[in-house]
Design goal:
The chain is mostly helical and about 180 residues long. The protein has helices at about 10-30, 35-45, 45-55, 55-70, 75-80, 85-95, 100-105, 120-135, 150-160, 165-170.
Amino acid sequence: VPDEILNKVRFWRHSLYCGVIARLLAEQCHVLHSERLFVAGLLHDIGKLVIAQRLPIETKNIALQAESEGRSEFEVEQDVLGFNHAEVGGELMRAWNMPETLFESVAYHHAPQHAEVGLMETCLIHMANIFTDEAEQGLDMKADIPTPKINPLVWEITGLNESVKEHVFREAGPL
């Protein structure tokens, strides 16, 4: 996938940082085997790679449209393609016979309320993704698209509050 279609440095930086944040959040929630949340965070946007490989022109246009309209690529994908990277990534997890909790964490990281088997894991990936988006604001001349709000269900399920952000950012270090 050429960089003019998908900036791979930005993609992998986001994925790695999301994995680190997810593991740290899992530790705060006393989730067993928190390293599996690192893997879920690392893979949460894998559907973007599939879409970029299969639909490169559409991927570039989606990025341009999202930036010009101040919307997330996720929203524009849904409008333009009729599906989004989270759904594609989830189906990839299913095709690879990954655990249901990993499928849900990837497929529902923008809509954690849809998770059934891995609700805690999906909530943590949702939160880690948004925290990572916040950490990326202003990097790479990236348009400062407002980050979405964390789904209120996530605070309820995890038992965490906004104060956790300072801790995980300090532990993860800067991007």
